[in-house]
């Protein structure tokens, strides 16, 4: 059996999914965190059920690639039951999608999530009455605390077994007449969704579906046009609006019958935006929050980096002494120790507090506030505030950042925000910035690199905008309410991302470090370094950085970890000047996105965009590093 | 009739119609900007920034370019 979770953005589908699947789907308190579907197997009443978490969508008529996924999935795959999650505090909007789903003719369960939030706002909902009115099971839920989850799945299993189909909602007489006419033209057959649903989507003008149907039934387009014209003639409005208005009317009538608004207790939480979005204090708080975040990461990380580095350096010496070995084996062994130490002493101490902090800001709902405050600035770079989502995700890892560009409707916006967000220093590059610059030069220098990075991104954005002028009208997004995340969801989310580092990146770091040790032993690195020597000369870097920079394309941390191997010490201050450290870090921050990012750019935007972005980053990296060097030479 | 940009902060207005092409109109309709629905500007960001709107109980952010496409009238 297969169940699908469907709901509007930020209604808690992924939270529910994670409750039953363990942390598998990314969650965040803003619209559009889930851009593709995630599947898992769950056990319901002893039966193994395939559960799929689909991206949030307001209607089944997708307007961006993430939303398109939903209808395509429903048409292509056999879904035995749909679990429709709606936000109790936005009942009317949620029900409009429910009505659309009822048309599909698939077993359907309605889950009213966030009952705790509704209670806080003084909303009383009569679920039993709604169940009678709609004729489908209605289940209350508080997904964040796991309340009502088991009951909802059991109920879904039962209706899927019975293949209990919902009755579609009835619209106004004119619309029903058109639906009937078109239904006659659409021959009977085995459709993945009900014929009525197809006809309604055709009237609404779904481009993908119209094309699909017209391929089999070329005559249907004139039939559709005729009905659209008739409806337009009656009301002087397009069919798509008539149907949307009808759904909203029905949803409103339903809500009025089952919802009772008591006096809401306004708390501090409802007034937070008076401060956080204030035209002056909002920006002060933004700087304060980001500054605190930065210092938290630095404070925690630097506290651990020094003792851990000392420990591993001593360990390296100790092992070689105790085992009485030298030559090839010794090289390999200390390569391995450098790799392990790089992951544990340089990367993890900063990654851990960073991911916990980012997860907290995401879940509490602050990211959308940043988008609101920064929209004007983003426009100067040729983007609108929505592009802040890939930007901020990019600080964690560029791969989800690239994927999240799907929330943009316009291909030009997608390209530009993908190109710019690959230049955002991800957690791997954070390790280089903190492990090298903050640790040896000082926290202010590291902060300077972050600010310099933003400036370079802004300038690059402006220049690209000059060639690809902005034509999208701007920001459209829903502001989520503040939610206090639970410790469990924040830690689960951080672990989800750290696990990726520990099991995928760390082994690569260790192996890369060993390979470099072997290459060093056989003097292969000399040739690679010699090849890159003119380039290093240009930037004023020591020749040893050549090979680590090449390997850094696989994983950005490698460029620092392998540098230790290349120099034969992880005391970077002994082998590099301050200027070299900064120029090196600036170059690492901007040059070629890592392999995983390159692959996801290719998947999302195609080969041409991948080449363009890769070339662009090398160019920007070189110029930015040169400029940094120039500043050092002048002052 | 006027665009949302001309509305005074805090005053309730009613959506009359949308402009800007089918794709944009659909997107706006999904967020609750259907003709007849009530809208209020809660606050606007400085430096000519976006508007934060109350649309039938939901908080929606619209950039000024988009807000110009929503035509409204005072209640």
Concise summary:
The complex is a heterodimer of chains A (635) and B (75). In chain A, 67% of the residues lie in helices and 7% in strands.
Query: Could you give the order of strands across the largest sheet of chain A?
Result: 2-3-1-4-5-7
**Major beta-sheet overview of chain B:** 6 strands, antiparallel
The second-level CATH architecture of chain B is: Roll
The number of helical segments of chain A is: 28
**Helical residue percent of chain B?**
10-25%
Judged by helices, strands and strand pairing, the structural class of chain A is alpha/beta
- Secondary-structure content class of chain B: alpha+beta
- Give the biggest sheet of chain A: 6 strands, mixed
The first-to-last residue Cα distance of chain A is: 69 Å
Evaluate the radius of gyration of chain B: 11 Å
CATH superfamily name of chain B? Ferrous iron transport protein A (FeoA)
Specify the overall morphology of chain B: globular
* Number of DSSP helical runs of chain B: 2
How many β strands of chain A by DSSP?
9
CATH topology of chain B: SH3 type barrels
Oligomer: heterodimer
Compute the average pLDDT of chain B.
88
**Uncertain residue ranges of chain A:** none
CATH class of chain B: Mainly Beta
Following the backbone from N to C, one meets helices and strands of chain B in this order, namely: EEHEEEHE
Describe the structure in your own words:
In chain A, strands 2-3-1-4-5-7 form a 6-stranded mixed β-sheet, with helices on both faces. Chain A has a two-stranded antiparallel ribbon with strand order 6-8. In chain A, helix 14 runs antiparallel to helix 21. With 635 residues, chain A is of the alpha/beta class. Chain B is α+β, with helices and mostly antiparallel strands and 75 residues long. Chain B has a single domain, classed as Ferrous iron transport protein A (FeoA) (SH3 type barrels, Roll). A 6-stranded antiparallel β-sheet of chain B has the order 1-6-2-3-4-5. The longest helix of chain B is centred in the middle third of the chain and has 10 residues.
């Amino acid at each position: 059996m297969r169940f699908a979770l469907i709901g509007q953005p930020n209604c808690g589908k992924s939270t529910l999914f994670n409750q039953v699947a363990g942390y598998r789907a990314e969650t965040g308190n803003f619209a559009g965190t889930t851009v593709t579907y995630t599947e898992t197997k769950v056990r319901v009443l002893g039966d193994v059920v395939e559960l799929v978490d689909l991206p949030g969508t307001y209607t089944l008529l997708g307007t961006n690639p993430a939303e398109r996924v939903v209808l395509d999935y429903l048409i292509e795959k056999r879904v035995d039951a749909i679990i429709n999650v709606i936000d109790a505090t936005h009942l009317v909007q949620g029900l409009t999608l429910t009505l659309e789903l009822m048309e599909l003719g698939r077993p359907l369960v309605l889950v009213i999530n966030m009952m705790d939030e509704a209670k806080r706002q003084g909303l009383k909902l009569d679920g039993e009455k709604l169940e009678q009115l709609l004729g489908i099971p209605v289940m209350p839920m508080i997904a964040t605390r796991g309340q009502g989850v088991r009951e909802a799945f059991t109920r879904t299993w039962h209706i899927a077994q019975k293949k209990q189909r919902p009755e579609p909602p009835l619209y106004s007489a004119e619309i029903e007449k058109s639906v009937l006419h078109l239904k006659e033209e659409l021959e009977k057959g085995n459709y993945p969704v009900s014929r009525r649903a197809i006809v309604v989507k055709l009237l609404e003008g779904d481009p993908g579906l119209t094309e699909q149907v017209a391929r089999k039934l070329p005559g249907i387009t004139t039939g559709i046009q005729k009905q659209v014209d008739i409806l337009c003639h009656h009301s002087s409005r397009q069919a798509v609006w008539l149907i949307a208005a009808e759904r909203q009317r029905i949803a409103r009538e339903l809500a009025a019958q089952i919802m009772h608004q008591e006096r809401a207790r306004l708390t501090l939480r409802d007034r937070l935006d008076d401060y956080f979005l204030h035209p002056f204090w909002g920006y002060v708080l933004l700087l304060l929050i980001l500054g605190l975040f930065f210092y938290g990461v630095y404070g925690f990380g630097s506290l651990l980096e020094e003792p851990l580095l000392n420990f591993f350096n001593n360990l390296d010496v100790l092992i070689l002494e105790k085992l009485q070995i030298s030559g090839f084996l010794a090289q390999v062994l200390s390569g391995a120790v450098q790799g392990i130490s790089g992951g544990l002493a340089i990367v993890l101490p900063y990654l851990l507090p960073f991911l916990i902090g980012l997860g907290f800001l995401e879940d509490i709902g602050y990211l959308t506030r940043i988008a609101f405050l920064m929209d004007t600035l983003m426009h100067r770079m040729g983007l609108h505030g929505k592009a802040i989502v890939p930007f901020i995700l990019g600080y964690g890892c560029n791969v989800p950042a690239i994927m999240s560009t799907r929330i943009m409707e316009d291909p030009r916006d997608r390209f530009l925000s993908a190109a710019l967000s690959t230049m955002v220093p991800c957690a791997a590059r954070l390790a280089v910035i903190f492990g090298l610059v903050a640790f040896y030069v000082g926290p202010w220098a590291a902060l300077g690199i972050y600010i310099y990075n933003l400036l370079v991104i802004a300038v690059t954005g402006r220049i690209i905008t000059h060639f690809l002028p902005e034509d999208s009208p701007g920001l459209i997004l829903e502001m989520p309410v503040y939610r206090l995340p639970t410790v469990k969801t924040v830690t689960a989310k951080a672990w989800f991302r750290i696990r990726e580092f520990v099991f995928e990146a760390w082994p690569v770091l260790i192996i890369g470090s060993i390979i470099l040790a072997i290459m060093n032993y056989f003097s292969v690195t000399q040739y690679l370094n010699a090849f890159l020597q003119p380039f290093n000369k240009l930037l004023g870097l020591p020749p040893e950085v050549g090979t680590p920079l090449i390997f850094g394309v696989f994983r950005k941390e490698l460029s620092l970890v392998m540098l230790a191997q290349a120099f034969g010490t992880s005391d970077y201050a002994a082998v590099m000047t301050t200027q070299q450290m900064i120029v090196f870090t600036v170059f690492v921050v901007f040059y070629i996105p890592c392999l995983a990012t390159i692959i996801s750019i290719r998947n999302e935007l195609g080969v041409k965009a991948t080449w363009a972005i890769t070339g662009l980053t090398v160019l920007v990296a070189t110029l930015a590093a040169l400029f940094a060097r120039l500043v050092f030479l002048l002052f | 009739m006027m665009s949302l940009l001309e509305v005074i902060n805090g005053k309730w207005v009613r959506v009359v119609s949308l402009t800007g092409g089918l794709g944009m109109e659909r997107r706006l309709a999904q967020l609750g900007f259907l003709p007849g629905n009530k809208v209020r500007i809660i606050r606007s960001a400085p430096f000519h920034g976006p508007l934060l709107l109350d649309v039938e109980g939901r908080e929606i952010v619209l950039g000024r370019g988009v807000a110009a496409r929503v035509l409204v009238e005072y209640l």
